[in-house]
Every structure is written in C-alpha cells, then in structure tokens.
Write a structure and sequence with these properties.
It is a single chain. The chain is of the alpha+beta class. It contains 16 helices and 23 strands. The strands form 5 sheets. Strands 1, 2, 3, 4, 6, 7 and 9 form a 7-stranded mixed beta sheet that branches.
C-alpha cells in the first residue's frame, strides 16, 4: 500500500509539472513580455517533413523548453514549438512575436483564425515578397480579440545553430523598436562603409600588405554582420536564398584568415616571433583546407565546425598582441590592437554563453557580435591612424633623404671625369661602378699645355658623407693645379685642408704627374694601390712610393718618386674594389692574380675596352652588378698613334 501511495504521489507531481509548462501566457496590450522562451513547449519529430496536422496528433510528445532561449544546435530536423496566449483586454489588439536572431533559414508560424489555420513565414530562405513584415526582423503579427485564447505553433528549420530570444510586443512598442533598430543599423553600416572606403584608400595609396589585409578583413566583417543583424535578407538573387546558407560559414572562415594575416603584418610577428608566425601561418593553411570540406560534409556540421574554429584566431590575435606589447616600444598601437580583439572576444563570449544558457538572456546579447565587431573596427582604425602617421613621418624623412641623395648624386657626377677619349693626345678609358647610389671614389684629370696630372682617391665608407669628403677633396685639388710637378707637396697641403672635415673618415689617393716633353713620370702615393704599367707584350710593372692614407690623426709622410716615362703601353689606376670583389657562393675574392692575368690578355686593347672588360669580368665573377665596394678604373695609353682597330 505504501508503494502504491508513493507512485501516486510521483504521478501527480509529473502531471502537475507537465501542466505547469502548458499553462497559457496571459497578456495585456499595455505590457510587453520579453524572454518568454520558458512558456514554450517543443517537439522534434522523426519525420523532418511532418506537417501541422501530424504535429497536432494526440501522441505527439511535447516537452518543456529547457532554456529561456531556443537553442537546439545538434538537431538537424526541424524543431516545432507551441505556446498558448490569453488576451486579457477589452478590445482587439495586434501583438508582435519577435525572434531576436534572424540567422535562421526558416521561421514558420501557424495560427488559427476563424476556424482556419493561417501560415506566415520569415527568415533567410523566404523571399521578401512572402514575408509578413520587415525583412531583417523576424516578427509575426498576431491579432487577438478580447479575452481570446489561442495556441500558436512555430516551426524552425535551420542549418545554422538555432538561437532565438522570443519577445511579445504591443503594436506601439514594436513600431518604435523597429524604427530605433533601423536607425542604429543604418548608422552602423554607414560608418562601416566609410571605414571600408578609408581602408581601400589606404591600401591603394600606401601599398602596404597590412592595409590590403585590413581592407579584406573589414569587408568580410561587414558581410558577416549583415547576417547577425538580418540585413542579409535584403540581398536576393533569383527565386532562392539557399546560397546564403553556404556564404555564411565561408564568410566566417575568410574573416578569420584575413584577420590573422592582418595581425601578422601589423604586429610584425615574422621579425619578433618567428615560431608563432609559422604556427599561425600553418593554422591559416588549415582553415583553407577546412573551407574545401564544405563540398564533402553536410552544411549543418560544417557550420558547427566553423563556429568552433572561429574562437582560435581571436585567441591567437590576443596572444600575439600581448607578447608584442611586452616587447614593442610602440605601446599605444599594440594596446589599441589588443582592445580591438578583446572587445570582439567579449562580444562573441557573451553571445555564446547566452546561447548555451549559462547566463540570463538579454536583448543586448543578440547584438553583442555586431557591437563587438564595431568596437573592434573602431580600435583597429585608431591603431591604423597612428601607423599611417608613422608612415607619413617616415615618408617625409625619406623624401628629405631622397632630396639629399639627389644633391649628393649631382656632387658625385661632378666628381667624375667628363666624357673624353684623350688627354694630351693620349687615348683614355674610364669606368666607375658604385656599391651604392652614391660612392666615395673620385677621379680627376688635369690637362695643361705640356703636362698631365692624374688623380684617383678612395674615401672610406659610402653614401653622402663619403661623397661630401670627395667633393671637398676636389676643391682642394686646386692646390695641385697650381704646381702640378710637385704631387707630394700638393698631397700634404690637401691633407691639412681636409683635417677639420674628415670626422673619422680617411682617404687613400694616388697622384701621377706626366711630362711627355721631358719624359718624366712622377708619383706620390697616399696609402693607395700602386700604378700599373701594362706593356704591349703583356708585362706588368708597378710604380709606387711610401705614404700613409690621408687622415686626421697621423701624418701621411708621403715620399715623392720620379721615373722615366715609358714610350708605349698602358697605365692602369684602380681602387681596391677591383681585387676585393667577392663571389658569395664560393666566398672567394677576385684577387690580384686573376686581375693581372686578365689585363695581360688585354695588352693590345684600347684603354676604354680594357676598363669595360674588367667590369664585365668582375660582374661575371661575383654574379651581380653590385659590389661590396666602389670600383673605379682609369686607363691611359702612352701610344699617341693608337689605332682605332685595337678596340676590337
């Protein structure tokens, strides 16, 4: 007897509990009712094509909705809900049942009016011409007479995770709500479109990869938010909207990919964190592979997988920004970047926790994703503005440097000998190959009525400082011009005139004085490579003398030497860039032996041909037209009757 009494008690509790969830919702036209999901019952029929008549059979098992939200992400079959409404009012009134999340394929509402069941549709799969009210708001008008009781059936068919807050508005409140929503999202997408154009302008103007990635990332975020706000329903092609089901997860994947690419470029991860950079690039490749599976697995599973994978790029972006913040000097840009993805993560987390029923559903949660992404874009835009400001400053500095380079190049061109084929009727050849746009080598040819002076120097370093010192050296050479027959004296005077301007630089130089009438060759060497004489039979004679390079610390102590002037052959002056040219692959220098063997093979050639051939062979040797050091070659033939056919 005791056993049966216990069973009776449990049976009564079960009946009472079941009847509690089937109690009708009493409504009044002066009130609004939010988060009424707990008043719904649901059933998931085995037959996905079950219609209303089958659902209304007595054997249909209705269960209380387990959450305040309608969330059945694991169900691939349509989910049916029902609710009973009682209108306590003296006059008929139209209420609006509003479902907060429009990212659903199909809402189908069935209600009985005057003995007939009327069906209304909303959702992405429904064309605008068949929708009951605003395209981007899933809402159904329900008109109830005074003291009328009505049971309403709602069918949700979706490949996306079902997530809806359900509210019941009176007419006045719903119209005001829909207008506010229109204004809010119009402002949101208007600002987003302006940012879209701004990012396009930056990408086109600055041509940096990070700005192109931001442009594509912003485009995918805006497209994604047309889903979360329902505005995607305004876009229709043909008589079907099924393409939106596939575009939705693809857009999520693309936003993740471009977001990560933008993160890697903006935070310069490749230089700062190469391992994390490779890991992130690997995850990007993984996402690209996952995108291809949309043609293999069913859409419902693909969307579920995409929703899970979307959290990883957000965490990666936050991790990289935190690590960069600890290392980078540009703190503000990184802080803004961290805030950007932090707000996005917060919006996504609020949305997710609400869907899962961990926190009480609030209407803000239905807009947490667009609001989070709006703040994200705002913070990223501020970070980009700072970055653009840095680029502008660097561009201004670059323009100033370019201007200085142009001036220095003009100075450099003035240091090189003008195009000439002869000096005192001696055939002449010259080639100059700078290591950078501006070099430090300098050549001067001074021709008088019966005298000839050849000067070649190599200033340490490259660029503007070396060019400036070479330019000052050219001015100082006027000292030698006044007394050409005394190169050592000129060298010492030039050293003294340059002392206050060297600033740690030094220069090696070689002075050659030639007097054809008296058959005199006089030289002065300031720490430079010797002068070579190449006879017509290929013999090489070196001419040199003692002397240190011109510097501000130690005297040069240059000793002048005189020699008889040879009757034939070619004088060759060159800088150390010739013999120090390097083959990177073999880590081998061009060297003196290779240089001497080369010029010996050119003993009968014209001076200009010799210079050209030396440069050609050096470029072949180092497999590049750029050397580590400036290369300068000056050749002078002592044969005044040198035939033109020897050029060949």
């Amino acid at each position: 007897m005791h056993f049966f009494s216990k069973c009776s008690i449990f049976l009564l509790i079960g009946i009472w509990s079941n009847s509690l969830f089937s109690l009708p919702l009493s409504i009044e036209e002066s009130k609004n009712y939010r988060d009424i999901g707990k008043y719904f019952e649901y059933t998931i029929p085995n037959n996905p094509e079950a219609n209303l008549l089958e659902i209304q059979k007595d054997d249909t098992l209705w269960r209380p909705n387990p959450k305040n939200v309608m969330s059945f992400p694991r169900s691939k079959n349509p989910v049916w809900f029902k609710i009973t409404l009682i209108h306590y009012g003296n006059f008929p009134h139209t209420f609006f049942i509003h479902l907060s999340n429009p990212v659903v394929d199909l809402f189908e509402l069935h209600s009985e009016i005057n003995g007939k069941w009327i069906t209304q549709w909303s959702g992405e799969q429904v064309l605008q011409k068949n929708k009951t009210i605003y395209s981007h708001i899933s809402a159904f008008p329900v008109t109830l007479s005074a003291h009328e009781t009505r049971t309403i059936y709602l069918k949700i068919k979706s490949d996306n995770p079902i997530f809806s807050f359900v509210s019941l508005y009176n007419s006045r409140t719903f119209i005001a709500y829909s207008k506010k929503q229109d204004i809010f999202f119009a402002a949101y997408f208007g600002a987003g479109f302006m940012m879209f154009l701004f990012s396009l302008f930056l990408a086109h103007t600055l041509r940096y990869k990070k700005f192109f990635y931001f442009f594509f990332y912003l485009a995918t975020v805006l497209l994604l938010n047309t889903y979360s706000t329902g505005f995607i329903q305004y876009f229709e092609f043909g008589n079907s909207n099924s393409w939106k089901n596939y575009l939705f997860p693809i857009t999520i994947q693309l936003s993740s990919i471009f977001g990560l690419l933008f993160t890697l470029e903006f935070l310069e991860t490749k230089e700062n964190f190469p391992k994390i950079n490779k890991t992130t690039q690997g995850y990007i490749c993984f996402l690209l592979i996952i995108m291809m599976t949309i043609f293999i697995i069913d859409l419902h599973s693909f969307i579920q997988l995409t929703v899970i994978l979307i959290s990883i790029p957000i965490f990666l972006a936050i991790l990289i920004s935190i690590l960069t913040l600890l290392k980078s000097k540009k703190k503000l840009e990184v802080i803004l970047f961290l805030l950007a993805f932090g707000t996005l993560l917060f919006g996504a987390a609020l949305n997710t926790f609400t869907v899962q029923g961990f926190i009480k559903p609030i209407h803000f949660a239905s807009y947490s994703l667009p609001l989070g992404s709006a703040l994200e874009v705002f913070f990223l835009s501020l970070a980009l503005v700072l970055r653009v400001s840095d680029y502008r400053k660097s561009n201004e500095q670059k323009q100033e440097i370019d201007l200085q380079l142009k001036i220095a190049q003009k100075l450099q061109n003035g240091l090189l000998p003008q195009k000439r084929t002869h000096a005192l009727e001696y055939p002449l050849g010259f080639r100059y190959s700078p290591a950078t746009d501006i070099g430090g080598d300098f050549v001067e040819i001074i021709v008088k009525e019966k005298e000839l002076g050849l000067f070649l120097c190599d200033v340490s370093g490259h660029g503007i400082p070396a060019a400036m010192i070479a330019s000052m050296t050219k001015v100082s050479l006027e000292i030698w011009n006044d007394n050409l027959s005394k190169p050592a004296l000129a060298a010492e005077k030039i050293r003294k005139s340059l002392l206050s301007s060297l600033s740690g630089h030094f220069l090696s130089a070689f002075f050659v004085y030639i007097n054809p009438e008296d058959q005199i060759l006089r030289i002065a060497n300031a720490g430079h490579l010797p002068l070579l004489h190449l006879s017509r039979n290929g013999n090489i004679t070196t001419y040199s003398s003692y002397g240190r390079a011109i510097n501000e610390y130690i005297k040069s102590d240059i000793i002048e030497k005189s020699f008889p002037l040879p009757n034939e052959g070619t004088f060759i002056m060159f800088t150390d860039g010739v013999i120090e040219a390097r083959n990177i692959n073999k880590d081998e220098l061009f060297g003196e032996d290779r240089f001497h063997n080369l010029i010996q093979s050119l003993a009968t050639k014209h001076p200009q041909y010799i210079c050209d051939k030396i440069i050609e062979e050096i470029e072949k040797f180092q497999k590049s037209k750029r050397s580590d050091d400036d290369i300068t070659i000056l050749a002078l033939s002592l044969d005044t009757n040198f035939e033109t056919n020897t050029k060949l």
